[in-house]
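step: validate -> pass
step: tokenize input -> pass
step: predict -> running
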Amino acid sequence: MNWFIEKIKSTILNKEDNFKNKFWNIESIKNLHSYLQFVRENDLELRISKE
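step: predict -> pass
step: emit ->
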């Protein structure tokens, strides 16, 4: 998860071009990044499942 959090920050949030062409929704990515940081900082378990 640490790797993914850093990749979001370094490759997506710092690239204005990703948002100019509306390929990414900046608010969604920021929310995901914040949520993952919260999970990591509080040593929570994160499970992803397909429903």
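step: describe -> The chain is about 65% helix and 0% strand.
step: cleanup -> pass
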